[in-house]
Amino acid sequence: MSRVLIVEDEDHLAAGLKLNLEAEGYDAEVEEDGQVAFDRLVASGGLFDAVLLDVMLPGLDGFEVVRRLRAAGQFVPVMLLTARSERDDVLRGFEAGADDYLPKPFDLSILLVRLQGLLRRHTWLRGTYQEDEGPDQFAFAGKLLDFRAQVLRWDGAEQPLTLMEATLLRYLVRREGQAVARKALLEEVWGVREDTDTRTVDNFIARLRRYLEAEPSHPRHLLTVRGVGYRFLAEPDEQ
Amino acid sequence: MDRSGGTRRRAVVLVWLLGAGLIAVAVALNISFIVVNWRAGLLLLVGVVSFVVLIGGLALNTAFLVREIRKSEQHDAFIHAVTHELKTPLASIKLYLQTLQQRELDSARRGELIDTMLEDSERLQQTIDQILLAGKTGDARRVDNPTDVDVAEVVGECVHLAGKRHHLTNGEVSLVDRLPCGTRVLGDRDELVAAVTNLVDNAIKYSGDRVKVVVEVASAGARRVAISVRDQGIGITSVELKRVFRRFYRLPDALQSRVRGTGVGLSIVRAVARRHGGRAYAESRGAGQGSTFTLELPLKT
């Protein structure tokens, strides 16, 4: 299920959009303030698959939201929805880094197919490791991993995961107990074929250990397999 | 908007500089003319008079140009605001209609959607009425066919409707009536309703989350009645107190916080006041201190 953030301060429009996106099977949420929406998108890092963004917003206007998102390295697909449809406004929207632009009043069917197009492209660009049939959640050692929501939960706390972190964890969890080579991770998770520096993987593992392990320097779940790569263990033997 | 705003500011500076430069040249020529023709009598007089006319013309021309540029700037902002005010409810209505057309919804949900559309069409109508009224009151000087209007009754109706429209029913907007029963003014009821409604709507809009609006009707001297609307909202700086009544003028703070509006509301209030032989003014202790808007009308004699 794709997650879409609707950033719109006109509550009627926001409610109408939410209703339609949910009817299409999307998970839709609404923010009314540009600054709040920006902070949320940055903090959740890849939680949303697309953003419908109004231009005239309190806090921070839509052009500025998308410009800052791109500057912060967030490349979530953004569609601007706005009553301002003059040539200069459209150009400004795309210059700021928007992926699509739809003037109000818009046609519902057109909006939905364009959004679908954005999401499809996003999926293609996400790389090779997308066809995954397994369950979306995995519980171990008092923690709950949600690959779809890209979040790790425990004792009421939660740690959002980036897309790459979630994908890497899912790959290891699906092969629980097996040693997985660094090169395989690079190829399957990152979709990298060339001889890339395998330290990329090591950096990610180090970060994930800080989330998963009680003592990151003495890992019990994310184990290093000397000379090969890594292995995930849900229930390590108590010794 | 920001881009053309930038070129406009440059244009204003350019016009000022050009005007000042030309005036300086004219003044210098004038002085040298006086020095050269010091003893020429009549010639000197004729020369000085023509120079003064020339300099005056230049100064007027410069001031006029700058004013026109400012006006067109405000006009652009108005077009933007009206575009937004018209297209937003229209977009909402279209979205809801297409939703009803394309989806199977239970009857309760359908009812909700229809209510939303009715609110949106109400908003559209208000914007259109407001613009038409601004055009109408902008032309003529006096009310066309004046009738007797009961002040307290009209104000009471405006307060009641505004409360309903903004979903404020817990006394956030209250009416204090200090008029002798049946106090009347001679005028156009619809225009007076529009003027008072504008004041009450503004008070609510610029109050943010904590709405506390008191509308008071009282005598002002022996021959006038004052309708005053007091809020605890964002307030107005002393520089802005007069400007807010200008057509298309909007507070910079209001634009920042995206308070809806087209910038014609208070110009309508002022025009209606004048058409009734009265006046409208604002008072405020400054930004964040709330404000009071008063509409004074002559009593029916």
Describe this structure in words.
The complex is a heterodimer of chains A (239) and B (301). By secondary structure, chain A is α/β, with parallel strands linked by helices. Chain A folds into two domains: 3-125, Rossmann fold, CATH 3.40.50; 137-232, Arc Repressor Mutant, subunit A. Chain A is built from eight helices and twelve strands. In chain A, the strands form three sheets. Chain A has a five-stranded parallel beta sheet, with helices on both faces. In chain A, α2 (34-44) runs parallel beside α3 (62-71), α3 (62-71) runs parallel beside α4 (87-96) and α6 crosses α7 (182-190). Chain A is elongated. Chain A starts with a strand and ends in a 7-residue tail after the last strand. The relative contact order of chain A is 0.09. Chain B is of the alpha+beta class. Chain B folds into two domains: 1-139; 147-298, Histidine kinase-like ATPase, C-terminal domain (Heat Shock Protein 90, 2-Layer Sandwich), CATH 3.30.565. Chain B has helices spanning 2-36, 42-102, 107-139, 151-165, 189-205, 240-243, 252-256, 265-275, and strands spanning 147-150, 173-177, 184-187, 213-220, 224-231, 279-284, 291-298. Chain B has a five-stranded mixed beta sheet with strand order 2-4-5-7-6, covered by helices on one side. Chain B has a two-stranded antiparallel ribbon with strand order 1-3. In chain B, a hairpin with a 3-residue loop joins β4 (213-220) and β5. The longest helix of chain B is centred in the N-terminal third of the chain and has 61 residues, at 42-102.
